[in-house]
Amino acid sequence: MTLLDWAWAVVLYWLALAAAGLLMPSSGGLARRIVFPLGAAGALAMAVVGVVALFNPPMQFILPFGLPDLPFHLRLDALSGFFLILLGGAAFGVTLYAVGYFRHMPAGQLALLSTWYHLFLAGMAMVLLADDAYAFMVAWEVMALASYFLVTTDHKIPEIRRAGFLYLLIAHVGAVALLLAFGVLHGGEAGRMGAYTFDAMRQTEHTPFWASIAFLLALFGFGAKAGLVPLHVWLPEAHPAAPSPVSALMSGVMLKTAIYGLLRATFDLLGVQLAWWGSLALALGLVTALYGVIFAAVQSDMKRLLAWSSIENIGFILAGFGLTLIFHTDGKDALAALTLTALLYHALNHAFFKGLLFVGTGSVLHATGERRMGRLGGLMRFMPWTGWLMLLGALAIAGLPPLNGFVSEWLLLQAFLLTPGLTQPYLNMVIPVAAAVVVMAAALAAYVMVKFYGVIFLGRPRDPELKHAHEAGWPERLGMLWLAAGCVFLGLIPSQMIDWISPVVVLLIDATLPNDGNWVMVAPLSAARASYAPLVFLAVITVITLLVYFGVKRVYHGRVRRADPWDCGYPEQDARMQDSAEGFGQPIRLIFSAFMRVERLTPDPFDRQPEYRGDSRDKVWLFIYQPIAQFAARLSALAGRLQHGRIQWYLIYSFATLIFLLVFVTR
Amino acid sequence: MTTGVLLQITQTGLALLLAPLLMGWVNICRAWLQGRSAPPLLQPYYTLQKLFHKDAVLAHDATRLFRFAPYLIFACMVLAAGIVPTLANDLPFSPAADVIALVGLFALARVFQALAAMDIGTAFGSLGARREMLVSFLAEPALLMVFFTASFISQSTELPHIVDRLAHQEFALYPSLAFAAVAFWMVSTAENARIPVDNPSTHLELTMIHEAMILEYSARHLALIEWAVALKLFTYSALGIALFLPWGIAAAGDLNALPLALLALVLKLALGGAALALLETINAKMRLFRAPEFLGTAFLLAVLGMLVHFLLEV
Q1: DSSP state for residue B250 in the 8-state scheme
Q2: Which of chain B's residues have a Cβ under 8 Å away from the Cβ of A563?
């Protein structure tokens, strides 16, 4: 069997597992205990296939079904391989977690969920393997529909149905754009189905105009899936609505399939790239990053906060994509390789830490039944496993050394620093300032994570009921452990990771990133420019911490006395006086008030049962989507006037149409 | 290699020893300027000694994170002090982190400080944590722009290379660095919790930032945090010296220049400490929500410096 056969076999295996869910709808325990672990094993196999594929030449394969003139083409190359690692690696941990997570779900619902879940996995893998537009769109739709049904698992709640519809709508607007993009890209003789294989597209020369049209359509279509501002509005609605393992997959992996598609279309299918595409993508990416993180800072629902943070990370990745385009079109191969490496690295990192954080919120949700951060607090004491593992995830996403989030941000910042030397002088000056936006978003991400972690896990429980919160079970812990280990591991071995990413970079832009370092130290381009050694970091910090700990204990003493915290002369303090999520976000709301509309409900001072509510609404929704929705409603109201429900009128309509057509035909 | 390791240990040890002295010097200068009688120069050491002897008092609700944080913060600051060249230029640790990684190291310490502050669950802890994170996200972009300006000149983000370029090659004046220096000064007051962004000697709950975060710490934990604060001020001073006044730092492999380098370092630190005390005396702490304007100005100055570099120096 070739490698591609193995990849295809795993897809078939997932499809079989999906069917198994339908065959035994009444035995939920079986589905959970057997089907999900089997699915996790498939994910691991997929990751292994991806690793091997990185170092093998591209291979192709034609499936015997599809359209008459266009059978499914599959192809496995380094780019697909890299994203298969991302899919398999993150899905392994998340699926393992799901084994424990769904234990309270009724049998029938669970069987259905298992079906959609494995269909979702298979769909994402097929997106990565497809080698013609038809197979790609079919897989894309399978992925979108399966995830829609997963989002609406709790479809009895109206808000969740609404979130699902919004997601479905934007997914399809995006899909239409993709369809058009492939239409522009088609190669060979028009009208032949064979023109829609990716191979035919690769061999076609596009004029700059049509190439730009195709790029813009692809950016729109994939941007709608990735959560590019202003197409992001579905993301903070749909991700919190889904069950936590599904949110983890959608945020960690599905958004990355859009990045995959964008890379595939821009660097592989399109023969030419233009510099202004890069400036556009860079600007959009920076806006997305900043917008996402500002809104993440003012959220009070923990899953919604993470969804906004995903938007921010997609912004980083897109900024890296824009820089890659700028460098590549400017002939700066080594720099383009650096940014491409950074963006791929960040995509992989994000899959791990966001997956970890989303499943962690699932454990919190199970233990407490609460998603609003303002009702939580102090969970570290009752859920130490979840607490410490989530701490790793939070530190990683905040971009702190020596974990993985820092490495990719560091690489991206190095690229910003190396811009001087571009042929356009204005870019030389603007791009370093753009780096400041990246740094600001990264520093705000640290703010968001201190808020997220501090309000949920630290402090005192804001509700006495929280004392009964129970720790997650073993399958959940193992799943989180895998994802957390990924966050640490990916952070400690940047040099090896750069070597592993380099086949992808060679495939896409035919350049390599010179690494001047060795296995402990990464030094892109040259050691005299910049270097970073996470292992030394970790070793030195650990050694000093231990030395100081034992040294102080030995020279002085280790005595500890417990007492009440200082009450500042006011003995009536209680846990409710800690900063709430809204309180923690208040400075950000004040500083960035131009970006959002704050709706507040402040109670009357004499109110016996006061209720306070503060909501920061997205202005994009208010100023772009709401007018469109109102316009559509008005249009359909006008169309509705034609429909009276009286048969005479409908007969007249048919008669008029007939006359109209007859006039056409006879002329 | 062995001389390198010895030099590294000497320099880090020197930073550990000199940092409280710098604090004491600043306090003396400030007392003189304010017309008070000054505490002894070695007062910070006495305080540390006293704190280490005391029994640690922990709140009932404190978790392990709270007890672990001071050690980690201290370790971060020691590593940071080891990376910045103060005496000599060829340190084995230096390639482990460039200036961007150094910013990350400070951020790691800061996040742990903020998390530890939220751990007890009092209103002041989270208030301090929130304000600290606010100031830092405003300060970090400006700090990075300062580093960008310096690294555009030297074509490197490695501190030894920047120092080498500015101090040991042909002498040149860079107007861009003048802007960057002012911006750096503004940012470091914010990052080190000094006036005008924060007041290190305040205990008025409504205005404090850093002090609010460490309210619950006592004894050895507090001692480690205080020492880490002193180390941070020392490291920032050393950074400022390395970027803007690098003359005197011994070149790579030049052991004979070390005594002179030590003398130069002490002189520069004494002058810098006196200037800090002077600025703290003639300024007042500003309202918290004036901090965005203050740090925005720092950011603009740093950007201006970078533009000056592109327009005049390329």
Answers
A1: B
A2: 57-60
* Min Cα–Cα distance to chain B from A383, Å: 12
Give A281-342 as a 3 state SS string. HHHHHHHHHHHHHHHHHCCCEHHHHHHHHHHHHHHHHHHHHHHHHHHHHCCCHHHHHHHHHH
What is the ipTM metric for this complex? 0.93
Alpha-carbon gap, residue A100 to A530, rounded angstroms:
45
What part of B 22-61 touches A (C-beta under 8 Å)?
Answer: 52-53, 55-61
Question: What does each of the 314 residues of chain B score in pLDDT, given as a tens digit?
Answer: 677 788 888 888 989 998 999 999 999 999 999 888 889 999 999 999 999 999 899 988 888 999 999 999 999 999 999 888 888 777 777 778 888 888 999 999 999 999 999 998 888 888 889 989 999 989 988 998 898 888 888 888 888 888 888 877 767 778 888 899 999 999 999 888 888 888 877 777 677 888 888 888 988 999 999 999 999 999 999 999 888 888 877 777 677 778 888 888 899 999 999 999 998 888 888 888 888 899 999 999 998 888 888 888 76
Report if residue A124 sits inside a domain. Answer: no
Could B216 and A591 be called an inter-chain contact, meaning their C-beta atoms sit closer than 8 Å? Answer: no
Q: Which residue's entry shows tokens 């007062």?
A: B43
E strand or H helix that includes residue A131: none
CA B110 to chain A, closest CA, distance in angstroms equals 10
Q: Are B294 and B138 in contact (CB under 8 A)?
A: no
Structural domain including B30 reads 2-313
The pTM of this model reads 0.93
Chain B 109-168, CB below 8 Å of chain A: which residues? 110-111, 114-115, 118-127, 129-131, 133-134, 136-137, 140-142, 144-145, 148, 151-152, 155-158, 161
Structural domain total, chain A: 1
- Report chain A residues whose CB lies below 8 A from the CB of B124: 568
Q: What is the pLDDT of residues A619-646, one digit of tens each?
A: 888 888 889 989 999 999 998 887 777 8
Question: Which residue in the block uniquely carries the two structure tokens 């380098």?
Answer: B261
Residues of A in contact with B111 (CB under 8 A): 395, 398, 400, 446, 449-450
Q: How far is B271 from chain A (nearest CA, A)?
A: 31
Question: Which residue is it, tokens 């791009």?
Answer: A431
Structural domain contains residue A291: yes
- For residue A260, is it within any domain? no
The alpha-helical segments, DSSP class H, found in A493-618 are 494-509, 534-555, 581-591
* Residue of A413, A440, A568 lying closest to B137 (CB–CB): A440
Could you say which residues from 198 to 257 on chain B have a Cβ atom under 8 Å away from some Cβ of chain A? 205, 215-216, 220, 224
